[in-house]
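re: ur question from yesterday

yeah so i grabbed the chain u mentioned. its 280 aa long if i counted rite. heres the sequnce exactly as i have it in my notes:
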Amino acid sequence: MTPTRSGFAIALLAALAAGPAMLRGQPVERSEPLPSQLEGVGIDEKLDGRLPLDLPFVDHDGRSVKLGDYFDGRRPVILSLNYYKCPMLCGLVLNGMVDGLKQIDWVPGQQFRLVTVSFDPVETHQLAFLKRRSYLEYYAKPEAAAGWSFLTGRAPSTQAILDATGFRIRWDEDRREWAHAAALIVCTPDGRISRYLYGVMFEPKTLRLSLVEASEGKIGTTMDRILLFCFHYDGEGYALHAMNLVRAGAALTLTVTALFLAYWWRREAVRRARLSAPAA
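ran it thru and got these structure tokens back, copy pasting raw so excuse formatting
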């Protein structure tokens, strides 16, 4: 099936609590618990962490490969961790990535590589083949085929790459789905994590600059820690943790207000000091 944009709203199933602490990447107190199905799900950033390049996988054509086969020391790599039977979010992440990449002049296989890995150890290379074919059609750049690989692997390999990238996922037995966060991982040519890009929409400039930084071996910092979590579609839409978004807006408003008041108070203090100064 050719991937298409979903006709229903993209939802934030859980947003990290808001405000300056979120921007600093620090844990934030929550007044209400996460849904039990999302406990333990998230991403622990491992910037500058080295990927285990010797991990064995199977590519979309059924060939035995190693993760390191896609790191040539010259070109950066965008690594996406998904599972191919994901009912919604994984498709949105890949759609968003392709939409952004279509608008830059870099092409997979030339200036960079794309590697998509299924973290579900029961998925097969046949499924990876079909998923890759549909996304290459969506990309609509034939030359991209040389630079985008879809991999599957056994549990030791899939767990090792999750651990190395800080992805914490959870299997929901009732719904037979994986709960996981939405992000792309931009890696340096020698296999180090340069930057995490969160969400399901990726600005072309952000993608290109992230690739340029990674190609130069630079390690970025992630300011936006709002994560999307794939859980389940209930027939009407994904649930939105509105209170977290309210906190984000409130924290931003308070910060801006505080800065304005500080500026105004300082200006007033200077003005009063001038008025009270004795005339020369």
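noticed a couple things. Residues 242-276 form the longest helix (35 residues). also The two ends are 83 Å apart (CA to CA).
anyway ttyl
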